[in-house]
Design a protein that fits this description.
single chain, three-stranded antiparallel β-sheet, 22 helices
Length: 729
């Protein structure tokens, strides 16, 4: 490593640590925010950062004492990412963490039995989030109320107008224009009287016998080379240990199997294999390791998230999973989480007393002064353990809004096949995120638990498994009936099987970022979220470094000036490419897929857009007509004459103005032109579009050249920008 890179890593690591100042509480004299976000988990924090970056005032109300939700507060800091794509806030987040570990000569590839994985210690993830929050505060107001809950929601007709928040010391009312439900359970939905799904049933007249997935109370464990400290080595097992012992003997034993690079994994595994499944970097250990076969025995920190699913094999009244009443009944929720916590505490005792390992909870992660409700009544020696455990359980399934659209596993599969195996585009025009995961249900996966109304069965878990990365459409963030409400985290409008692929940390961060962008655009435009055109949100996300299209072109790399517009043109089918990618589909579960690797070598994963090709009048007219249709503008025929002739820039700008008459009414007096407009019969049109930023593709020119021909890349950029401006007028 060269000196400059070393200094960069050291600076990045120092910035990560020293910027992690305490979160700023809500201002005592402020009772109005543009956006209030319920829940400071992966989705809520991402929404808050995006919205604040766009200048909105934001208040986050988090029930626990930690931010980061499943990725940090719940201890699931091994990233479940099969998309092979990283962008936006998620990329920023893991880049900061990587710089931290790089500065210490440590790998993040410590989990899932392979060095290409991504893992981090929860407290380092927390610090990364805080550093991102502090940077966002320079652009907008971003306040927090920790250890607080929204207890009621105010509505005027069907529109959200504010909330009541209960803190540890008082209750207070806050006004807002947009409310985002990013809670781990979807707890805001009942307060807003918004219809929602839970399990395979719906609110109002739901079936109390319906089931949802297991939860897990994760533990972060580490090896103590000098022996486990006495205060972390309980002497008396908790009630129910004998049942737990038999359960754990089926997962991990001293003489269990090594991981054999095959799925499903042969169990019971040995302790080294167990630890390298959810292995974490260890800042306290000077030795560097990863999860490759030769290094697994050196792992000294791991998260316990395997045999301790609750109820798991214990079942619930003879069925796998949990009853939906876990979400609806707070008393039952407390009891279930208490039992889930005890099941994990049993594992700690099992490791120390049955396996004879010098491992216990890590003493450098969580230091909880306030015990969670789930720990009430535990003996003192076990309370010392719990104080060093994650502050919330890992909740895999929540309430889900009934939205403008409900995403199904069939749609995810079809979408993931875009540009694969000879197919063309199945992209969602309103895509706001890209994810990649299997349809993963932990319990409640029998035919009777699945939503048949969406033509899904238990067998669909395999038959509808995505064949590559897939998009998430914006309309599943928006409820059918409640204005001013946006869903984030796991609360989106989707089937249970679709939720099994969208519940993971990377995609909840991406959809959370989209929720924040939608909320900020809604506030800026003075429109309800359902009235905001997706293009306006997509542009903000693309400008924030998010990738949205599943189609890549060799002649339009990410740094190309028209890349954002080409991505939108792909999704709406505005411009025909010269050649589309034709990569084969692959097994999304395999990080090392030789078929995909060969396709990349051959360039099959990229098409050719023809960005520099000169277009004809007929092609330009077709592009404009498609743009009109995309934003609902009235069809107006333009560019009459010989369709095979090349179209000039002057004629093109006039045609765009004629096709989108709203552009002429937008006030652009405060804008400055980036080039000189000389007198010409089409100069008024060039000036209108120029002041609106629609002609920024020509910003490098000293003046606007009316007679030059229009290229395909220029046409794509101009028409997309015109559509976005027209949709906001």
């Amino acid at each position: 490593m060269n000196v400059s890179r070393t200094l960069r890593y050291i600076f990045a690591a120092a910035l990560l640590i020293f910027s992690a100042a305490p979160l700023q509480a809500a201002q005592s004299n402020r009772n109005t925010y543009d956006i209030i976000i319920a829940g400071g988990g992966t989705g809520g924090i991402s929404a808050a950062i995006q919205a604040a970056n766009m200048g909105a005032s934001v208040l986050v109300v988090e029930p626990s004492t930690w931010i980061g939700g499943q990725a940090t507060a719940a201890g699931v800091s091994t990233m479940d990412d099969m998309s092979r794509q990283k962008s936006g806030i998620y990329l920023d987040f893991i880049t900061r963490i990587k710089d931290y570990y790089d500065a210490r000569g440590k790998s993040m590839g410590t989990c899932y039995w392979g060095s290409r994985s991504i893992a981090f210690e929860p407290h380092i993830g927390q610090e990364a989030f805080v550093s991102m929050i502090n940077e966002a505060r320079r652009r907008g107001t971003l306040d927090f109320l920790m250890n607080s809950n929204i207890t009621s929601v105010k509505k005027k007709n069907s529109r959200i107008s504010g909330v009541t928040v209960k803190t540890s010391s008082n209750k207070r009312e806050y006004k807002c224009k947009i409310l985002i439900d990013a809670t781990e359970y979807g707890d805001i939905l009942p307060l807003t009287k918004t219809p929602y799904r839970l399990g395979n049933t719906t609110s109002g007249f739901f079936n109390k016998e319906a089931m949802i997935q297991d939860i897990t109370w994760v533990a972060i464990m580490r090896k103590y080379p000098g022996g486990v400290p006495e205060h972390l080595k309980p002497t008396t097992p908790l009630p129910g240990y004998e049942l737990a012992k038999r359960n754990y003997e089926s997962y991990v034993t001293s003489d269990g199997f090594n991981f054999r690079n095959t799925y499903p994994v042969a169990t019971p595994v040995n302790f080294i294999t167990h630890n390298s499944y959810r292995g974490l970097p260890d800042s306290s250990n000077p030795y560097n390791y990863d999860a490759d076969k030769d290094n697994r025995m050196h792992i000294t920190k791991t998260s316990v998230n395997w045999g301790n699913d609750y109820p798991g094999a214990y079942s619930w009244n003879g069925r796998r999973g949990l009853p939906v009443m876990y979400l609806e009944d707070k008393n039952l929720r407390r009891q279930i989480e208490h039992d889930a916590l005890i099941k994990t505490l049993h594992f700690i005792y099992y490791v120390q007393n049955e396996l004879g390992e010098d491992w216990s909870v890590a003493d450098d992660e969580y230091r909880n002064r306030i015990l969670p409700e789930a720990a009430q009544g535990l003996p003192y020696e076990w309370q010392e353990i719990v104080r060093r455990m994650p502050v919330i359980p890992y909740v895999r399934e929540s309430r889900r809004i009934i939205g403008e659209h409900t995403l199904t596993s069939h749609e995810i599969l079809r979408n993931s096949l875009s540009y694969r195996d000879g197919q063309t585009s199945h992209e969602f025009s309103d895509a706001i995120a890209i994810g990649g995961y299997i349809l993963d249900l932990h319990g409640a996966a029998a035919d009777g638990d699945i939503e048949w109304e969406f033509d899904e069965r238990a067998s669909s878990i395999i038959t509808n498994r995505p064949r590559g990365p897939f998009q998430v459409p914006m309309n599943i963030l928006i409820p059918q009936e409640t204005d001013g409400l946006i869903a984030a985290e796991k609360n989106l409008s989707m089937s249970r099987l679709a939720a099994g692929a969208l519940r993971l940390q990377p995609i909840t961060m991406m959809t959370g970022q989209a929720a924040g962008a939608l909320a900020a655009v809604s506030v800026r435009d003075g429109r309800m979220p359902r009235e905001v055109h997706a293009m306006r949100v997509q542009w903000e996300l693309l400008s924030s470094g998010v990738n949205l299209s599943l189609c890549n072109y060799s002649d339009v790399p990410p740094e190309h000036p028209v890349n954002k517009s080409v991505q939108i043109a792909n999704m709406y089918g505005l411009v025909d490419a010269n050649e589309y990618p034709h990569a084969p589909s692959y097994n999304i579960r395999e990080f090392e897929d030789p078929v995909l690797a060969m396709a990349i070598i051959r360039g099959q994963d990229k098409g050719v857009f023809g960005v520099g090709d000169i277009i004809t009048r007929g092609t330009a007219a077709e592009i404009i007509a498609r743009g009109q249709k995309a934003v609902g503008a009235a069809a107006v025929k333009v560019l009459a004459g010989k369709s095979g002739d090349f179209v000039s820039r002057g004629d093109f700008v006039k045609a765009v103005c004629d096709a989108f008459p709203k552009l002429k009414d937008i006030d652009s007096t405060q804008s400055r032109l980036t080039f000189r407009i000389r007198e010409h019969r089409n100069s008024e049109y060039a000036e209108i579009l120029g002041r609106l930023g629609i002609l920024d593709v020509y910003a490098r020119d000293s003046e606007f050249y009316y007679g030059r021909p229009v290229t395909k890349g220029e046409a794509a950029d101009v028409i997309v920008r015109a559509c976005i401006a027209s949709a906001g007028a």
